[in-house]
Each structure stands twice: as C-alpha cells, then as structure tokens.
Specification:
heterotrimer; A: alpha/beta; Alpha-Beta Plaits; Pectate Lyase C-like; 2 domains; C: globular
Chain lengths: 281, 262, 278
C-alpha cells in the first residue's frame, strides 16, 4: 500500500507497487477529500521500482489533478536519467525498500527519549489527528433518524464538551475508554481520563484528575506544548512528534507537568515546572 | 516464499477464551520458529494488546492502516520476548463500521506476504465485526467451552463458516475434568459429537490464566508449564503433526485427599 | 396490538399502576455473566412478589431461555412480535417455578440487523406498562445488538469480572451509556483467595476505574455452572450463597435493602475443613 505523509507543508509519497496501481489507489484515497492537499508540493519515493518515463509522467499528471505539484523523485539510480527527462529532481536512492518485516522501523532522524527504561520515541506523523481536528470543527453534529425518533443513542464525549472561546475546549466529566477529544487549541478535562481514552490537542492538555489514557499535546508540531495532570499516569504521552511511556510505578506523586526539554519528554512535579511559553531546548 | 495461512479464531459466545487462545497459540508457533502476525479485529473493544502486554507501545492501529494514515509496518508491534511475533492492534476509539470486509481482506493478504501465519482474533457475536474478521481468513478455529450456551453459539458460527466453505477446527477451552466426571460439564466426546468438527486441542481450566492475561505475559511462554506444553501441542497439530491428546481425568492422590476433607 | 384476555396476564386494575422499570444488563465483554445475572436477578425479584419480564436481546445467539430451563417452551420470539406475526401474550413464556416471571425469547435464526431499534424501544415501553420490572439481557459487544438493547432502558446494570480486559470493556460501555441513565455495577466471579495472593483484581481495583454505585459482588462458585446447565436459577436455591448474593442484589434494586454490599471473603480454615453451608 502506498502512503502519503505530511512533512511540514510538503508531502512525501512512498510507493511500493506499480505506479498505475498506485495512482488508482491514490484516487480512492483522495475520493472523499479531493481538495485536501490542493496547493501542496510533493516528492515521491519509488523504492525499488524502475518505471518508464511515460508512467512517471502519468503519475505526475494524476497528482496535478488534485492540485499537488510533484517536485522530485527518489529511488534506484537507474531512474535518474528518466526523471531528469521529465524536469523532475532526482533525490537519490530510497532509504527503505519494500516491506520486509523486522524490528519496529526507526525513521532517519532517530531520537532516543526516555522517561524510564520502558520508554522509547519515534518521530511519527500524526496527520490523521490533524485531519480529525479539522473535520470536527467543520462538520455539524449529524442528526440521524434514530436520534430524531427520540432514541437515546450511545454517547460520544464530544457531545458533552463546552467550547470556551476559540482556543480551548473545556470538558467536565470523566472520559471513558474508547472516548476521544480532539481540539485545535488547548484541552482541559475536569475528571479522569481512563485507559483507552484519547486526548489530542494542538496546544496544551490539562487534566484535573487522573490521566491514564493516551494524551497528545502539540499534535500539529508545537514542541512547546505541555501536559499537566493531577495524576500523570498515561498509557502513552505524546508531545509534537515525540512519544514516551511511563513505567508501572503507581505510587501517588502529586500533580506533574510534562514538556520537551533538550529533545526529550521530561516529567517534573508541578511545583518545579517551567511554565514559560517558549520551551528551552 | 508462499503466502501465509490466514486463520480466524472465533466462537460466537463471548468470554470463552478467543483472545487468550490467539495470543498463546501465536506465541507457541513463534517459539517453534514460525513468523506470526496476530491481528486484533475487535475494533472498539480491543484486548489482544493487553493480553500480550504491548498496550503501551501502540502508535498506529488497524483502522489507521486501512485509512492510509500510516504504513502497515508502522502499525505492527514487535513482541519483545519473541522476535518472530508481531501484533497489529485494533483501534479503541472507533467502532466496527470503520472498516469493511474488503479492506480487511486486503490487509490480511498483505500481512500474509510477510509471515507464515496470520491469526485473526475475532470479536464476540456474529455481527459486522465477525464478518470483517472472517473476510480475511481462509481457515477457522472455533473456541468453545464445554457448556451448553457456548456450544449452541459455536454451532451457529460453524454453520455460517461452512456456508462460506471454510475449514473449521475446534479448541475446547476451560475443561474441568472433575465436573465432567460429576456430570455437570459436557465431555470432550459430547462436544465433538454435537459440533462435528475436527478437534485441534483441549485446554484445561487453570487459574494461572487470569493472572497471566492481566499481566500481559502469555502462559505459552512458560514452556515447562502444563499449559505451555499444551499450547505447544496445539501448534504442532496445526502444523500437521499427529500429537496425542493429553489425558485429563484421574486426580492425583492429593486431589482425592482434599476433596474428602471438604 | 390485539388485546387478549388471558388468565395468566396481570389483571387490569382500576387504579393506574406506576410504570415499571426497564433495566438493561450489559457488560461489553462476553462471558462475564450477563445472562446468568439477568435470569437470577429477575427470578429473585419475581420470587419477592414483583411481576417481571425478561427480554433476550441477543438475536441469533439466544441463551436466556437455556439458563431458565425454558427452551422447550419457547414458541415465538421478539421478532415475531415486532413483525406482528403473533401477539405479545402468545410470545411470553411463563417460568416453571415462579408464575410472575415471564420470558420473551430472542430469535435464533435471525440477525440483530433485523431488529428495528425504534420498534424495539416501543415494545420495551409497552412492557413497562404491564410489568413492574423489564430486564433486558444485552448481547456482548457494542454493535447494533447493543444499541437496540439499550434503546428502551433508562437504567443499566453493568456486569464486570475482576480482570483487566473486562474492566476496559465495561468502561467503554459506561461511556456509551451516557449521562442520562442510572448505571450500577455488579462485580461477578470474584475469587477472594486469588485477590489475596495478588493474582486477581480487587473490588477497589475494578471500581477505582469504573466509579459506579455497587449493587453487589458475587463470588465464583461451581454451583452456578451446574445450575445454568440444568436451567435452574441459583437465586431460587435457599441454600446457595451465590443465590443469596443475587437475592440481596434484587433487594437493593427494589429499595428494600439499603446496606452496602459485602465483599465475599475466603472461607476460614474451620469452614474449609468441616464444610460451610453450600
């Protein structure tokens, strides 16, 4: 399966099947949101493929239909002349070949970030989280026929949250497993966040209760974002592109504050936290 | 390299041990050197990650793979104890309508190119989640306990699978020989007669299972233990070996002594 | 719906009765004891004098009839009623032992998608007009079967065993049930000896996450499997401690017992040696 990933404002398209099939697949992927990437620039990673000029041109043209400009291509050396012929940049050989299952893949700029011996980090692209936040902002609540018949349907957490101003979503009540709150801005939860629940915010996350689920602050890339909780015991903590997990210690440590310091997620007691806006790195 | 065997573990009735069996059978196969990928198809009620102890390392899940937000191999979690064992977790904040049968079949086919066995942990019931899980498989293992309700549900599921022409084998879980003797539980023969499916394994009830699943340490990893040996036998039978079934029944001297004492 | 005069139906009284209560018994995780709980709590409530109807919402995988020992008596089911093929009275099965306990069975050869949620909710509503208690046995999972089962109920009992997976699934379900229902907890299949050894979650571990009002804690006991296989609810067995636990749960539901539930403990050495009332 090919993937489209965001890198800053550009796209990287990793292709692992014949270009014709990749184009079909991409059309299916973009079907629901044809304009989502309009205006973007992209590079394609062709892996071990060696397609003829006509196929690469067709690929470039297909992308252009969605408003995506293909700037360059990486892959095996033999495609360099073909690529140049089409006025595209040849970006060198592909860093990773077709899918070969081995250790959990480590991306190029690898960082080892530890809260404890159990923790490790990845640089991960949470494009999906960004899309969700944008979509929730835009879509009005769906009214199904069941709801209008007065049937009490299973409840979503977002149904309870009260938007405060533009930037911060304020939610009163415990978040149960399987519930998720996504916000463009900060997120404040008064209550617990149970294991299996998920918080995603482009800004800070504050939990006035026990944070036991997954929290992702700075989800659009803001490395100065923080996570603060009365009890910080998340299954997983993410700030911008760093991920960390805590060890099993359950002793009560009081309110704590997590932020990125020197390229690592660092957790300190709240009383010792540096609350200035810009992070020190 | 030929494609892997794709096996769904299902039951109809919930709580009979599908997830525990998936995890332990997967571990047993990996211990025998096979490359195994375990897939949790229970979207919204995921548990396979807990039973294997990989919950904290989930970054991407099955739904995100299907939606194209990540590559398949980014979502696969490698077990720290067994290098041949990988897990594709389900999503927790979504529900089963997030993916369809075709997508499940595609993902499973891709996984099958990377390993020897794909084991799919099916959700309880026979609704959308069940159909998704089955869509990716070419064989089925039915997990049942020797109780009337569980057998009735297993029978319904076997019917549905046979309609699809899928070969079906049986694992009888949580057998309690003393209850079989007192007539309060069906015997292995009773079960295989009613369900008329080939028997793959018999797993006795064991209180260690609860603790090991809570801690995320599948009991099959304890190869010297009784249950570890049993899961190894099941793995060997799955591979095609003819392996005698363990005899359960006669309690030891101590068993008899304590029963008399009350 | 065609009204029939039936000698077993509750008599229409001149004074309008208070509407009955509709309670869904759910869990998320399968195999934790929803059906056993529905049958036993229903039997205990009925034995205490209330009129009770048990509704099996597990279309295609019905089990409530087996647990009550009534499978041979089931002639019609919920879908037959919803599709107007029979009347409700034709479909209701009266329990062998407790006449004020009725069963409305699920269809076995149909699918949960066949049930229209609004129609099911309306059926539950009309059952509330006739019975003091309507207990709905919910299927495992959170798919359409679950959505249907909760549609008509404004109260819920969540059944959970002391295992991590069960707690996670129960928490999911509590979130889906929402804030507008009264939700209470029964912890089932507790094994005090394993809790003491640290090999099983304690009541506090479970309710530390779920944070629900506790209706009762039921210990694991082999006589429950036996009674399920025989179709004889253990709540009707005066000598059974598990039966007693269910009877107390029924009393807390009806409001006649307000003391908080006891946590079952291990038998003492004396009891182990000489046998306690079992």
């Amino acid at each position: 399966m090919s993937t489209v990933r965001g890198r800053g404002r550009n796209l990287e398209i990793a292709v692992d099947r014949a270009l014709g099939a990749a184009v079909d697949e991409m059309r299916a992927q973009f079907a629901g949101r044809p304009d989502f990437y309009r205006g973007s620039r992209a590079v394609a990673n062709l892996g071990i493929l060696e397609p003829p000029a006509a196929e690469i041109a067709a690929f470039r043209d297909a992308l252009a239909e969605y408003g995506i400009t293909l700037d360059g291509v990486s892959g095996v050396e033999s495609i360099a002349p073909v690529v140049a012929e089409l006025d595209l940049a040849y970006l060198g050989s592909a860093p990773e070949a077709a899918a070969e299952v081995s250790a959990l893949p480590r991306p190029r700029r690898e960082r080892e970030v530890r809260i404890s011996d159990e923790a490790r980090s990845l640089i991960a692209d949470f494009a999906g989280a960004r899309q969700d936040m944008v979509r929730r902002r835009q879509a009005p609540a769906a009214t199904s026929t069941l709801a209008s018949a007065g049937v009490a349907l299973p409840q979503t957490a977002a149904a309870r949250a009260v938007p405060v101003g533009i930037a911060t979503l304020y939610h009163r009540g415990t978040l149960r497993g399987g519930q998720a709150l996504h916000n463009l801005g900060n997120l404040v939860v008064i209550g617990d966040v149970n294991p299996g629940a998920e918080l995603v915010a482009s800004g800070d996350i504050v939990v006035f209760g026990a944070l036991r689920g997954v929290a992702h602050a700075g989800a659009q890339g803001d490395r100065s974002a923080r996570v603060i909780a009365l009890e910080l015991a998340p299954t997983q903590l993410r700030i911008a592109t760093l991920i960390a997990t805590s060890d099993a210690g359950t002793r009560a440590r009081g309110p704590e504050h997590a932020s990125i310091v020197d390229e690592r997620i660092v957790v300190v007691p709240f009383a010792e936290a540096d609350l200035r806006r810009e992070h020190t790195s | 390299m030929s494609a892997a065997r794709r096996i769904v573990l299902t039951s109809g009735k919930g709580g009979v041990g599908k997830t525990t069996t998936t995890a332990n059978l997967g571990a047993a196969l990996a211990l025998r050197g096979k490359r195994v990928v375990l897939v949790d198809a229970d979207i919204g009620l995921r548990n396979l990650d807990l039973v294997l102890g990989v919950e904290k390392r989930i970054v991407f899940d099955l739904v995100e793979v299907v939606e194209g937000r990540c590559q398949l191999r980014q979502a696969l979690i490698k077990d720290k104890r067994l290098e041949n064992l990988l897990v594709l977790p389900a999503a927790q904040t979504r529900d089963k309508t997030a993916i369809g049968e075709l997508q499940m079949a595609e993902v499973t086919a891709q996984l099958a190119e990377l390993c020897d066995y794909v084991l799919i942990d099916c959700p309880a019931g026979i609704e959308h989640g069940f159909r998704n899980a089955v869509a990716g498989a070419s064989e089925a293992i039915i997990v049942t306990t020797p109780e009337v309700s569980s057998i009735r549900d297993a029978d319904r599921v076997i019917g549905k699978l046979r309609e699809r022409g899928m070969p079906v084998r049986l694992v009888i879980n949580r057998l309690r020989p003393e209850m079989v003797r007192s007539g309060d539980m069906l015997s292995v023969d009773d079960v295989t007669d009613i369900l008329s499916a080939e028997l793959l394994g018999i797993v006795p009830d064991d209180e260690e299972v609860i603790d090991t699943t809570n801690r995320g340490e599948p009991v099959a990893l304890q190869t010297e233990s009784r249950l570890g040996a049993i899961y190894d036998k099941i793995a060997r039978r799955l591979e095609g070996d003819v392996v005698a079934f363990t005899q359960f029944g006669t309690p030891g001297f101590f068993g008899r002594l304590f029963r008399k004492a009350g | 719906m065609h009204e029939m005069v039936h000698e077993e139906a509750p008599a229409q009284s001149a004074v309008p009765r208070e509407r009955g209560r509709a309670i869904v018994v759910t869990s998320g995780k399968g195999g934790v004891g929803k059906t056993t709980t529905t049958a036993n709590v229903g039997a205990a409530l009925a034995a205490g004098g209330a009129s009770v109807v048990l509704v099996d919402a597990d279309v295609g995988l019905r089990n409530l009839d087996i647990v009550l020992g009534l499978e041979a008596r089931v002639r019609h089911h919920v879908l037959d009623v919803l599709e107007n093929k029979v009347t409700l009275d034709d479909a209701l099965v009266t329990d062998k032992r407790v006449p004020s306990l009725r069963l409305l069975a699920a269809a076995q050869t149909r699918e949960k998608d066949d049930v229209d949620t609004v129609a099911f909710r309306d059926l539950i509503s009309s059952l509330r007009d006739r019975f003091d208690y309507v207990l709905i046995d919910c299927p495992a999972g959170i798919e359409k079967g679950f959505v249907n089962a909760i549609a008509g109920a404004d109260e819920a009992i969540v059944v959970c065993t002391p295992e991590v997976s069960a707690v996670r699934d129960a928490d999911r379900v509590v979130g889906l049930l929402g804030d507008n229902r009264s939700i209470k907890l029964i912890i089932n299949r507790l094994r005090p000896a394993l809790v003491r050894k640290g090999k099983m979650l304690s009541v506090d571990d479970v309710n530390g996450i779920l944070r629900l009002s506790l209706l009762g804690v039921v210990a694991e006991a082999p006589d429950v499997i036996v009674s399920t296989n025989r179709g004889e609810p253990v709540a009707l067995d005066a000598a059974s401690p598990v039966g007693e636990a269910y009877r107390q749960i029924a009393q807390r539901i009806s409001g006649t017992l307000t003391a908080p539930p006891e946590v079952p403990r291990e038998p003492t050495f004396f009891e182990k040696l000489f046998g306690s009332a079992k």
